[in-house]
Amino acid sequence: MQTSQAFTPPNRLLLGPGPSDAAPSVLTALSKPLLGHLDPAFIGMMEEIKSMLRQIFQTENEMTLPVSGTGSAGMEFCFVNLIEPGDDVVVCINGVFGMRM
Q: Which DSSP letter does residue 18 get?
């Protein structure tokens, strides 16, 4: 059985749209053991994040959640949360991603 060598990519300064460089604190956090989404420690951390988001957005809505996703996912989240059936919307198509709306 053949084994592969450890992957040690060179340090690079990433300046594109993604992936992007991660702060040293993020890299340290990523080296820690994982938590499941039902772990009490994870649930406590998520509740703290939700509380801080409610403060930032000045809302008491209990459904305020952090969501990880692409830019396209972000556009969709904005539309489904801000636009009501029957609302008029003007979409200016400029570039590749404008056609997605």
A: S
What does the alpha-carbon distance between residue 100 and residue 55 come to, in Å, rounded to a whole number?
Answer: 31
CA count, 13 A, side-chain hemisphere, 22: 9
- Where in the chain are the domains? 37-100
Q: What angle do CA 66, 99, 74 make, to 5 degrees?
A: 5
pLDDT band at 93 (very low <50, low <70, confident <90, very high): confident
Residue written as token pair 């749209």: 17
Q: Is the peptide bond before 19 cis (omega within 30 degrees of 0)?
A: yes
For residue 17, what pLDDT is reported? 78
CA–CA separation, 40 vs 76, rounded Å? 30
> From CA 14, how far away is CA 84, in angstroms rounded?
39
Cα angle: 98, vertex 53, 21; to 5 degrees: 60
Cα separation, 75 vs 81, whole angstroms: 10
What's this model's pTM, rounded to 2 decimal places? 0.60
